[in-house]
Amino acid sequence: TSPRKTLSVRERRGSFPAMRGILWQTDRAITFTTKPCPLCDDAKEVLEPYKRRFILQEVDITLPENSAWYDKYKYDIPVFHLNGKFLMKHRVDIQKFEDQLMKLEFILKT
Questions:
Q1: What pTM did the predictor assign?
Q2: DSSP code of residue 2
Q3: How far apart (Å, rounded) are the C-alpha atoms in residues 24 and 55?
Q4: Quick one: average pLDDT of 36-46?
Q5: Residues whose CB falls within 8 Å of the CB of residue 31, separated by 6 or more in sequence, listed in order
Q6: pLDDT digit string (tens) for 60-79?
Q7: For 37-48, what is the mean pLDDT?
Q8: Which end of the chain has fewer surrounding CB within 10 Å, N or C?
C-alpha cells in the first residue's frame, strides 16, 4: 500500500470536478483536518477496516492555500467528502459510509 500523504488543494487540483478535499481507491474520500486532531485520528481508526476499498487523502485546512476550506470547516473537522460530495462531519457514521461506498461500487460494476 502507498503511504498516506497530506495534500494541499493546489496539489490535488483536478481530482474532483466539483469539490476538492478526502479521496477513496476506485472510490476516493477526502478528509478535511488540522494537526493535531484527535477526532480525525479516531475517524481514521474507524475507517481502517475499509482501507482496501478506498483511497483516503487528507487536506490540512490550516495551510494558506486551503483557506477557503478553513473558512468553511474550521468548527466542523473532521469533514469527509466521498467522490467530491459532502458525506459526513465530526464523527464517522459507519452505516452511511458503508451505504455510500456500496452504491459507488455497484455503479462501477454496472
A1: 0.70
A2: P
A3: 3
A4: 93
A5: 21, 22, 40, 43, 44, 56, 57, 58, 59, 78, 79, 80
A6: 999 999 999 999 999 999 99
A7: 93
A8: C
**Distance of alpha carbon 82 from alpha carbon 61, whole angstroms:** 17
Beta bridge mates, 57 = 30
Domains in the chain (CATH in brackets) are 9-109 (3.40.30.10)
How far apart, in whole angstroms, are the C-alpha atoms of residue 28 and residue 36? 23
pLDDT of residue 26 exceeding 60, the answer is: no
Query: How many Å apart are CA 36 and CA 16, to the nearest integer?
Result: 26
Q: What is the CA radius of gyration of the chain?
A: 13
Strand order in the sheet with 79-82: 54-60, 27-33, 79-82, 85-89
Residue 11: band (very low, low, confident or very high) from pLDDT cuts 50, 70, 90 = very low
